[in-house]
Write the structure tokens for this entry.
Amino acid sequence: MKTRRDFLKSASLAASAAFAGTAGASRFAFGQEAGGKTLIKVFMRGGADGLHLFPAYGDLAYYDHRPSLGIEPPSDSDANTAINMTDTFYTRGYRGLNPNLELLMDIWADGRMMVAPATQIEEANRSHFDCQRWIGNGAANNLIDGYLNRYLQVNSTSDHPMRGITAGKTSLSGELAGEIAIPAIYSADRFNITNNALCSGQGCSENQLLQVLADIASHDVELPPLETKIRETQMVMVESIAEVQAAGTDYTPSAGDLNYTNSSLGQGLKLVAQLLKAGIPLEVAALDWNIGWDTHSNQIPGANVADKFIDQNFRYNRGMTEGANDFLTFYRDMSDYMDDVVVLVGSEFGREVVENGTIGTDHGHGGAWFAFGGPSSPGFGPDVASLAADQIDYGRFLPIVVNYKDMVAELMVRHLGLPESLVSTVLPNHNFVNNNLFTRVA
């Protein structure tokens, strides 16, 4: 026969698995007023090719470096060409948009999208594991909490268990790992606990299993510190499930004829929209957009494919199209909230400017980050003047013109209200340089 302690341990281990084993927060309070600011960080794991997302069609050197992968300048007669983007920072028409991302032009045309095409962490090498970890931690240090968790520790005015979430997946993003327990939730309809033997009312409208778990987790007993943290993590799980269930699983976006895809990105954005519309005071969220960004070879389909840059049978092209659909769906769905919500999209590094011998691109330095909503300044941020061999690193790598930590710091200061004096706490020992990428006033 199981004792209460045995049940507590088994339930706590389940909670730890569901929430990636983070240490617990100490306070739980519901009913905070909604209407605060939200930062959604989307990570393109694998090293996304920024020159493919935003091709430098105004630079002849781009085509010298990429005879096969260079996307041709805009043309009304060919869907395989880059899309012209009116550049409010420069007038030379230097950058365009990958044709698979065409749906993003709705956001761009509204003046709500910013692109920083040569961005990276300055400490970077070209290791996926190091760069992903260091970007998540905000420093080249493997032993500290994620920077979004540290932000919640020093600047959050809420103790709601869902002031931060990882959405669209069940493993915790590095940015949110740390002292404060953070739930990792794929989608609302996959995040629940039911047991018919513990239900009453019509159709299990009263979930007694949740109440049992909550009672166990909140029972006032003396426990060793580790078990106390596990119990607190369990409480976050139970209360988060209750909040998600209250938000409902039958959700239809207000996005016209668009809908979220079933991808991790689509389901994560859908969940964030549900929670914000339900009044959850969500401050930070981390999502992934994974389509196979590590393009060492075959970045485009075979030579016999006429529509090589847009063929939707090719996974890489289709993944970009679906991602653009999800971003625009979220933008339309959250149209009444976009002054208070900003989506920041980036990768651990870019790819080499020069294509390799297998019609691919190897690990590089600077890569494209972009943002929309909130205070995002419309247009392109600082970029290299040319892709000529003598203007880029070692004749192969796009330089790092914008340090991603400055982008994050500017968003935290201008959007989330972080005092500038605390930037070096959230991003250890970082001296903030303001690039004025987020100056839009609602």
Observations:
- Residues 225-247 form the longest helix (23 residues).
- Confidence is low (pLDDT under 50) at residues 1-35, 88-92, 193-206.
